[in-house]
Amino acid sequence: MPAPTVLLGAVAYDPKVVTIWEGFRAWLRGRGLDFDFVLYSHYERQVEDLVAGRIDAAWNSPLAWLRAERLAAANGTAVRALTMRDTDQDLTSVVVVRADSPVRQIADLTGRVVAVGAIDSPQATLIPLGHLAAAGAAVDVRRFDVGVGLHGDHIGGERDAARALAAGEVDAACMIDANHLAFVQEGTLPPEGTRIVAQTARYDHCNMTVRAPESDGVRLFGTLLLGMSYADPQVRPLLDLEGLTAWREGRTSGYGALAEAVDASGFYSPDGRVTATDYRP
Amino acid sequence: MTAAPVAEVDLGDLGFGRGAHLLVQRALAGLPPGGRLAVSGRDPALRVHLPAWCRRRGHRVEWPDRGEASDLVAVVVRGSADDDRWFGAERAGPALPSALSSRPPARWGLGARGALLEAGGPEARFDLDERDLVWADIAPHLYAQAAARQWDPQTAVPWDDKFALPADVEAAVVQVMTYLVENEQAALVVPARFVGRIHPHFREVVQLLAVQMADEARHMEVFSRRALLRGAEMGTSSAGGRQSLFTLVAESDFALASFLLSVLGEGSFVDLLSFLHEFAPDPVTRRICWLAMQDERRHVVFGMAHLEHQAQLDPLLRDRLRAAIHRRHDALVDTAGLNADVFDALVVLAAGGWHPNDVSAGYDRVQALQHAMDQGRQRRLVRLGFRPDEAAALSALHTRNFM
């Protein structure tokens, strides 16, 4: 009987993606799963290929998950979140101003310039702008489109927004909580030079999206991922590179805020078509 | 319902942008995985940064209701990632050299001896990884001594002392210096080829060889500088001399290279430097030969120490040493060996004048030097376990180039 197989899609947002999935591939093949992967230059084609059955699993951004869910439903099928990283759960984004800014609360941002990441960044654009809009702040947006199509996986747009804030070119900047800490630690933002004026509710990030019902290979894939241990010296460097200490069961309860932002901004249509006017992945 | 925290930490005004993680980390270290830590603090960004930091480290965060005036930010539930990282970790042997591993594994690689090594990482292969092949108990002591006795070529030598030599005596000095530079170059390259092959577990040997290389580098400098002190041209270099030296550099076996270089070559070289110190016609030459001689003595002591150790453990070592001498002799049998210009220059320096009686005396002194070199080699060979008659025969096969 042939070994169960999985063909995974992953987006090459960084050269380390090759190292990570080459390493996982060797580890998974050593445990009886005939695993292989293909790399995409952006998420949109990856999602389309998953729903069309050309790949078995997609290592998806939260935005890509939403689109996969919509495309599958429109198609009369369904997708499921097989696993996610422990570090993908309960994130927040923040809106940051300079410490000496007159802005004290969200309402004060009305009419001011807010820097965001790329057009398709869930954490540095879509979710925080949705948060500001829901709070009634009408802001002028200055977007930093780095790595469009990578759904914010490329940190460049977020960092450029932070730089613009530090340089006094904008009144506020949006970023994920961990990146606010990282930007302070690396010196992009001066220590104690910024103030957080808004924090979103907690949301979830990437997941391993698969079609339902799952094949034997996909089920084995999920079991093997959940069995990866940070105590295993073979996978630990790969987990470090991928930024997790353990895989968790997938959940989809943390995508509500992003779905609202997608609908409000018209990024995707309800049936999963790309409708954002100036989005060119 | 959540369990009560078992530990608390108050960060005061300290934020994660300025090292608050150190306090949290320290407090968590005292807890088992699953242990709970109540974190308080007043930094405005703490509610953003603490969970972001915890997420990356695999710790869970709970958000209890906080009282009106409370500084309580969150309760951190310790994850297992910190412990998991060190699962299977091992010490890279003892920190001190008292109980060295006889064969340190390749996986210890460049980890500091005695360090706690995270499992995984590269198998860094250092092919000289057997204690008995490289080690000598005297190595740490010799290294410390060598490091303490480094000298500054600029200040240790009286370069500005006034002296003037007859042109032919100065030429003899230049010729001898040229020969010494050539030899020191070989003496630097030989250990250099082994330093990168010795397992870092035997770090004192690596350190000692590194200082030995620094010694030779200084010698190259001072001998060159003396040669050019009164002129702009170096002396001659014979093809046979260079070939003799190259057989040393080409030896890839550590024990044999060490034997040929330190025990036979540098041993004879010490006698030569002593001779030059005695008959040097000027204070600069006298001083640099004395300084170099002190260094070379140390090199001989180490070479002898680890070969003596090895000879006790391996009765076949002497066969290999014997074969190495024969091999080198055979390789050089068709060459003239020592540069005749060097031999003549030594006679001139030892003569101290041009009267036939002076030259005759100088010639006798060089003969006596060669005899002393031969006796020294025989003594060292006997210490390595060769019978006296065989030691005499082997010493006679040594290269005419001295080194």
UniProtKB/TrEMBL annotation, chain A:
It comes from Micromonospora ureilytica. PANTHER family: PHOSPHONATES-BINDING PERIPLASMIC PROTEIN. It comes from the Bacteria. This is ABC-type phosphate/phosphonate transport system substrate-binding protein. Pfam families: Phosphonate-bd. SUPFAM superfamilies: Periplasmic binding protein-like II.
From TrEMBL, chain B:
InterPro entries: Ferritin-like_SF, RNR-like, TusA-like_sf. SUPFAM superfamilies: Ferritin-like, SirA-like. This is TusA-related sulfurtransferase.
